[in-house]
Amino acid sequence: MPSKKIIPLFLFFLSITSCVDDLDFTQFEDYSAAPEFSVALTSFKILPFQFFNSSGIQESEITDVTNFRIFDRSYVKDKLVKLDFNIEIKNELDRDFTIIIELLDINDSRTHRFQQIKINANNLDFKFLEVIEVNSNLNVKNTSKVSVTVKMDDTITPLDPYSTTEFELKSSLKLYFDTDA
């Protein structure tokens, strides 16, 4: 019976003599939240027959324009500090391609043009990253559309319109915010 009294007494003694520090609420003054968000931008697959117009003539490029209205929100415009533009491409075709990507405003004027991207034939795992520092390119905040042009580098050799090989592009943006801005 005495041991049952000693254990709680010992635990009580430990709890009142343990180390305790005062709370330092000034730590919160130095805290800065910097949220990051990833959003899908555009993605598509192109089959060889899509490079042919309705008359059966092979075209050398295909352009896709996608609406991207994230900058309509004032929070995004006010707090955005950096963008990471990511692309993944799977090129099963036996052609080299050049990709031209432009960010456009509501009037189709260019707000940013990415460096040209060269994709080799049969490259099944191509990755690309371009970083945009918003403070040095404030016009990017006026973006409302994304234009992606896929240009075939070899236009002399005809494509087989019945081939099932494909060109696949996926893109995303990682947005970085400064809540103190």
Description:
- The chain has 181 residues and is mainly β.
- The chain has a single domain, classed as Jelly Rolls (Sandwich), CATH 2.60.120.
- It is built from 2 helices and 9 strands.
- The strands form 2 sheets. Strands 2, 4, 5, 6 and 8 form a 5-stranded antiparallel beta sheet that branches. A 4-stranded antiparallel beta sheet has the order 1-9-3-7.
- The longest helix is centred in the N-terminal third of the chain and has 16 residues.
- It is elongated, with a radius of gyration of 28 Å.
Number of helices: 2
Q: H/E order of the elements?
A: HEEHEEEEEEE
Question: Whole-number radius of gyration?
Answer: 28 Å
Domains (count): 1
| Largest sheet descriptor | 5 strands, antiparallel
CATH architecture type? Sandwich
Mean pLDDT, rounded to whole units? 88
Kindly summarize this structure in a few lines.
The protein is mainly beta and 181 residues long. It has 2 helices and 9 strands, in the order αββαβββββββ. The radius of gyration is 28 Å and the shape is elongated.
